[in-house]
Amino acid sequence: MYKSAISMVLIVSLSGLLQGCLGPAVVSAGIGATMMAEDPRTAGTIVDDRIIVSKLSSRIKDKYPDQAKIHVTSYNNVVLLTGQVTAEAIRDDLQLMVLETQSVRDFKDETMVREFSTFREFTKDGAIKTQVVSLLTRSKDVRIVRVSTTVEAGTVYLMGLVTRDEGETAAQIAASVKNVSKVVKIFEYVD
Questions:
Q1: CB within 8 Å of 37: residues ≥ 6 apart
Q2: Which of 28, 39, 57, 79 is the most exposed place for a label (fewest CB within 10 A)?
Q3: Which residues, at least 6 apart from 98, have a Cβ–Cβ distance to it below 8 Å?
Q4: Whether pLDDT at 70 is above 80
Q5: Domains of the chain: which residue ranges?
Q6: pTM across the whole model
Q7: What class does CATH assign to 43-113?
Q8: With respect to CATH, is domain 119-189 assigned 3.40.50.1100?
């Protein structure tokens, strides 16, 4: 009887917690589904991109935990590597890793042989990215779900499947942000 009462209290308590989580979970799922519906990539390609990023990031961290600080981005199976490495030989090896990764169609290596970014540089890049994404989101001429934004050392990298007009507008918007030194377009054009 005592165990049954405790079990019942636990079940009722946990169901209340689950109900509290249900609302945000449903909203998050709805937003995710909407974004996927507007994304020009197939669901399979979106999954491939996530797997590519996960596998490459993991391999790089495992092999070069103290010699490389790399950010991996994949959009439509095109990989962008940004960040810093301690030697040119590591850059060469990273390129081989990308080429050996399943589903990768193309890649752009923007890694640099230099000291790792300082916290201040990292923070500055984060602020730039936030501002660029915010402006792109508000633009009526760019569908943000079609554009992936990466910032490294003041350089903004724009990837995605866009029209030429969208790509040009996105690049102009990114270039207008304070502290942006350069904008690199890695777009695939749909027109």
A1: none
A2: 28
A3: 56, 79, 81, 104, 107, 109
A4: yes
A5: 1-38, 43-113, 119-189
A6: 0.80
A7: alpha beta
A8: no
**pLDDT of 135-191, one tens digit each?**
999 999 999 999 999 999 999 999 999 999 999 999 999 999 999 999 999 999 999
Asked if 163 contacts 143 with a C-beta cutoff of 8 angstroms, the reply is: no
Same fold, 43-113 and 119-189: yes
Helix, strand, coil shares, percent, the chain, to 5:
55, 25, 20
Provide the token pair at 162: 């866009």
The set of residues, in sequence order, having a beta carbon less than 8 Å from that of 138 and lying 6+ positions away, is none
Q: CA triplet 121, 124, 127: central angle to 5 degrees? A: 155
Residue written as tokens 């890694």?
111
The pLDDT assigned to 37 comes to 64
